[in-house]
């Protein structure tokens, strides 16, 4: 491989600018919840991250352990969980990641008893939606945005029926302009899914993490290839940006 000093320096400059900009990006696009969810947690409470491949992030599904790095993968959930545990050692919290790559809302519902209700979460965070659109776009799924919204609403109602006091966090499904997977018409067709997620968040009065807005702001500081090469799955920097935004919303 031929080493290019100019290319290396240019790449390094972009990376440095992107990393340095993360606090600014989060500050400009994310607001802390009026009532901090962290303040409502008690000793031994369970925090659960749920979703698709963005949450899964290559985790070892054979372990399924709380507070275990290999059970978390390498994404935003790991980064957020590590910060929570480091800052709250006295609470003895148990944090799980049960995201599964490729999942759509109905697939969360299929495994909800084992992968959510049985864990008795005090705080539940869900990021879901990109596959509900993406798999329809590529002909592998015939669901609609109406199905997505109906299924998502039923999932939260089912959760609250079992745990009326659970603290809910809904994360905005996102896609990033300039990513290799984001073809013509994607953003216009995906917007209704994001809007549906926001309606559900408002209806159930959940905390809301505006990831799509966050990444639009991030593109002012570095290109899509830096934050998420395919526009769907975050890079290391993208995952850190997501984690910081999540922590600000939930912990303030």
What is the number of strand segments?
Answer: 5
Number of domains: 1
Largest sheet, spatial ordering of strands:
2-1-3-4-5
Instruction: Output the structural class.
Output: alpha/beta
Question: Helix and strand succession?
Answer: HEHHEHHEHHEHEHHH
* CATH secondary-structure class: Alpha Beta
The overall pLDDT, averaged over residues, is: 92
Number of DSSP helices? 11
Query: Which CATH-level-2 architecture?
Result: 3-Layer(aba) Sandwich
Kindly report the oligomeric state of this protein.
single chain
> What gap, in angstroms, lies between the N and C termini?
46 Å
Radius of gyration: 18 Å
CATH topology: Rossmann fold
Overview of this protein structure:
This protein has 252 residues and is an alpha/beta fold. It has one domain: SGNH hydrolase (Rossmann fold, 3-Layer(aba) Sandwich). 49% of the residues lie in helices and 9% in strands. It is built from eleven helices and five strands; from the N terminus they run H-E-H-H-E-H-H-E-H-H-E-H-E-H-H-H. A five-stranded parallel sheet has the order 2-1-3-4-5, with helices on both faces. Helix 1 packs across helix 9. About 3% of the residues have low confidence.
